[in-house]
Design brief:
Blueprint lengths: L2 H27 L8 H15 L8 H29 L29 H25 L5 H19 L3 E8 L2 E8 L1
Antiparallel strand pairs: 1-2
Amino acid sequence: MDERSQVKSKIDSLSAQIEMMENLFNRYFSGMDKLPPSKKLDSLKRDVMRLMDWPGGKLSPADQFMISSFVQKFTSYRMKWEKGVTDIEEGRKKPGSSWYGQGVTSCFSDKTIMFHKTSYEDRTNSEIDKAAKKFVELSREMSGKDYDVAAIKQTLKLKCGEIVSKYGENFTFDVSIENGKVKIKPQST
């Protein structure tokens, strides 16, 4: 294996570890885990330091850039994680579902914060997407107003916490016209 392949392989391996750490820290910040994964973070820091001091001799500028870009990515995550832990330890924030969105709960409760998307998330995103598109289409037909689909989707995602608490995780959206206005209403399924 040539040196470039070795560097790329090591970066890919460390990237997977960063994703795992992001999941672990999300679990801690959401209150699912009581302690932060500090020992695993220390181990990851050592591995990144070893990458920065690549033992294979002189690296090409492309390899140096690849390593530098990766280290910047890792540093961004590390600073976010360490700041979050410090905020909790110093009492500025509390772990829990309100950690994400500063008090706004989302459709994706603590139970569903995972590295891979769940079928629940896929289904909810699909429902939000369909409702937003139908709302924009009906609004255009009824009033000539042209709403941004992404903005409608974001609004629905922000309201999902309330919807889940009222209807549970099995819900859909009914997009209809009432009194000349387009309305989106959640319904349990």
